[in-house]
Amino acid sequence: MKELMKKIGYEFKNEALLENALSHSSYANEKHTKSNERLEFLGDSVLSLVTAEYLFGHYLHIPEGELTKLRASLVCEQALYSFALNLGLGEHLLLGKGEKMTGGDKRPSILADAFEAVIAAVYLDGGYEAAKKHILNFIVPEIEQKRSVKFEDYKTLLQEIIQQNPDEMVEYRVTDESGPDHNKTFTVEVTLNHNVIGVGIGKSKKDAEQKAASEALKLMGK
After folding, report:
1. CA–CA distance, 147 with 196 (Å, rounded to integer)
2. Cβ contacts of residue 179 below 8 Å, gap of 6+?
3. For residue 205, which of 191, 181, 190, 186 has the smallest C-alpha distance?
4. What is the largest CA-CA distance in the chain?
């Protein structure tokens, strides 16, 4: 707990809150204690508020629709999973025997939920400002990175264009996967009514899909 508190940058007055935040339901069922699910529920709301407040106050020139997309990219499971990895949260999780044996400490959904639960624990122990400081340590660098690469959700833009014609259908499929598990490269095709309109290559399926969608938009002159 002391090691994790150093990583978080916050010292709990009530360490039981942090322990509860790390308690997966599989562990709680075995030990007949409380899981982190209620804390996760609260943490999700605190995270959303802090993120929205920060974007509203710092990006005055960005319209509501773009703010919504940017916030969604910051509070989605993938983002929270990466934050949890940066915190080394997996090695501190309290899991049931079965969950531990099947790699629960590396599962994105479990780590993302635990990250939200830790936010709630900080909020309950130290108040809104403490939780806000903790959250901003993660989302501010992420925002700056996204803005530096001119954040665009090409998949959403492509979908919005295609939806103007209800008969059109867009699909993504992985056509190639190469490299070792820790450094894979994915190739993805995007098709419109089964015709290839874009190809993307990336270090994740999501990245490759975005690049394929970007190529499709170029083909359409967008």
Report:
1. 30
2. 185
3. 186
4. 60
According to DSSP, residue 165 is labeled S
* pLDDT tens track for 23-53: 999 999 999 999 999 999 999 999 999 999 9
Number of neighbours of residue 108 by Cβ within 10 angstroms: 14
- Please name which of 90, 95, 111, 93 lies closest in space to residue 31, comparing C-alpha atoms: 95
Q: How far is CA 157 from CA 168, 187, 207, in A?
A: 15, 20, 15
Q: Rounded to two decimals, what is the model's pTM?
A: 0.67
Active site residues: 44, 116
Please list the residues that pair with 196 across neighbouring strands: 191
Distance CA 39, CA 113 (A): 9
Alpha carbons 114 and 86: distance in angstroms, whole number: 13
Place of tokens 């929205």: 52
